[in-house]
């Protein structure tokens, strides 16, 4: 029941004894606050709490582990009702802003070679209620969370319909009332999904995990690129910006000696031309056992990162760098999929 909007709670409960609308709103308010039991809903009559407990479950999933890094990152391992495990993270920028990083799938079908989640394979999509339960668990731990990034396990645009439902819960004015401008969805570049999102929502900020703007290299690093070539991908981004009128983030995971050369900077500059975009550089976060064409991946040294960043800025690009957060609990970008 947690994660449902009031009208969804009404539909769920109409099969048995119906409850007045103000009681349904009270239930909704309690689920939003993250109570773990119907018994904790102390402004409901005892008989109503008893009826709810006998007929419904408050949560379908449960927190099975919580790991805290010294940099303020907190990673949750969550066990779903079918036994699958996912992970969600509270990110702390060190300046007081906290962000919930949520998963949308158990595993991931995108299979990017530099990502731990991609190495797990794909099990299933999460339901909207399971996505919202992640947020409720994180929000209960850190009530001052102000932003959401859909950058956890899975490819969001392969589960767009359930994500639409979940975003309705996050943005409901009578609920968490999060501005859609404070929610960012990161995709590996699914062209039909970007166009669908542009036409039908959710109206969220968009980040593209580009990594390389060299067609051949990107296809070797990110298998989904074979069905979503750069020409069509850029056309979809241009279309998205015309419809949504918002800046796009182009994310580049930096892999030592692979995608940080002069040719890479030139290609990225060409791809970004004509887009209102910021380039976010993400030095690769180590994951044991991940290989690229038979060789172990490694993060680039600082000198390589600085040189690549300078090359992009010299081409007039707006560049930011994501600094290391959550590595101590395997909670950084690309590391989700197994508690240490």
Question: In short, what is this structure?
Answer:
With 340 residues, the chain is α/β, with parallel strands linked by helices.
Task: Describe it.
The protein is of the alpha/beta class and 340 residues long. 35% of the residues lie in helices and 20% in strands. It is built from eleven helices and 14 strands. The strands form three sheets. It has a ten-stranded mixed β-sheet with strand order 1-2-3-4-7-8-9-10-11-14, covered by helices on one side. The protein has a two-stranded antiparallel ribbon with strand order 5-6. Strand 8 (183-187), helix 7 (191-200) and strand 9 form a beta-alpha-beta unit. Helix 5 (128-141) crosses helix 6 (160-171). The relative contact order is 0.12.
Mean pLDDT: 93
| Count of runs of 4 or more consecutive helical residues | 11
CATH superfamily descriptor of the largest domain: Aldolase class I
Determine the structural class based on helices, strands and strand pairing: alpha/beta
Annotated CATH topology of the largest domain: TIM Barrel
Please summarize the sheet with the most strands. 10 strands, mixed
Low-confidence stretches: none
Label the overall shape: elongated
- CATH class designation of the largest domain: Alpha Beta
Distance between the termini: 31 Å
Number of strands: 14
CATH architecture of the largest domain: Alpha-Beta Barrel
Order of helices and strands: HHHEEEEEHEHEHEHEHHEHEEEHE
Sequence of strands across the biggest β-sheet: 1-2-3-4-7-8-9-10-11-14
What percent strand?
15-25%
* Count of discrete domains: 2
In angstroms, what is the radius of gyration?
A: 21 Å
* Helix share bin: 25-40%
